[in-house]
Amino acid sequence: HTKYRPFQPVAIENRTWPDQEITSAPLWSSVDLRDGNQALVEPMTVEQKKEFFKLLVDVGFKEIEVGFPAASQLDFDFVRWLVEEDQVPDDVYIQVLTQARPELIERTYESLKGAKKAIVHVYNSTSTTQREQVFRLDKEGIKNIAVNGALCVKEHAEKNPGTEWVFQYSPESFTGTETDYAVEVCDAVIDVWQPTPDNKCIINLPATVEVATPNRFADQIEYFCRNVKKRDSIIVSLHTHNDRGCGVAAAELGLMAGADRIEGTLLGNGERTGNMDVVTMAMNMYSQGVDPKLQLGDMDRIVSVVQSCTQLPVHPRHPYAGELVFTAFSGSHQDAIKKCLANQTSDKPWDVAYLPIDPMDVGRSYQEVIRVNSQSGKGGVAFALEQEYGLALPRWLQVELSPIVQQFSEKDGGVIESADMKRLFEENFMTGSTPYALG
Ligand code: KIV
Ligand code: ZN
What we know:
eight-stranded parallel β-sheet; two-stranded antiparallel sheet; binds zinc ion
């Protein structure tokens, strides 16, 4: 059909990324408090922002986009609170977003007065759609907006030497921009900022809207990395959204294609279908033996803070974080998990069927791995009783108890708790105080 224009791929010869693995953590930047926040039905209150900021620091982000202070008084006040109340650890950069407009850049610097370290993130849109229909400017006109914004950012920084400044530029809607033109615009910004290997700037390439398969995005990134000037003096950053459901995949392939840094949110909140989910990407790395350099060991706290600050529920099947992602109900899965867990020792690599990672690594317990309902078999019942009560039932007793439990669960219509299983065991197999089954 012809309604939608097909994506125009960029040609890459001798592509490098398909053979690459991700071998080390990228630089991470959280955009929860900005991109995540701007997508909420009810934006976060200052109190919620404070709580979320604390979580981000605890998780280990060293770069945190805290808002768009020139566009929102609440964001302005929040930045002032962070600075004046000395809430930002010495090794953390607060990042703020601004459009490439002089009055907004001026206000942005006002919000940052006295900050120790800050990333000033300036953007303008460069795509064909926005050039033609929103700004009605040609390529030169759009490039001038970027260059003037970059000049203005630099001038303000020079007037405020007390802060350690990092400059960041985003050609917004990069994925809808001719890739060679995106390079041209970024080169012009780089000419203004004159970064060096010891004083780098960040060039952030957003999939503002995800419009193509992740390999095509990675082609754009590879082309960009090969052609942009002063590659050794810039940090190439990715900012993917999830319109096609592939935000994480695009970020992963983009990293393999040469990027250094990733922006995203915890559990994927953000405009429309969300930003790329840092939890999923970091845990994907972790499960492949790569240290993501983020602390995700208390997943319940992450889920709870994100839910309470965004008012968005986390899906029970959300990778690594959902309530049900380490749970097996089916008898054959339970049986396999039980056998593998019995063989698993701390000196061996994790090798348990149906569990891609050890649930304990994200603060979950084995109790919730095997849950019993009408689909479960004797293995699940035995596992639950052993885990919870230390009852090691012999096989014949497992065989006899299992249909009783199943019948109960069918009548009850749901998950059966260990306490009920124990009661059924006692009612059916214990005479007086003698557990005759266990002798
Ligand atoms: O998605 C996007 O393009 C953005 C930019 C402002 C970086 O959020
Ligand atoms: Zn975005």
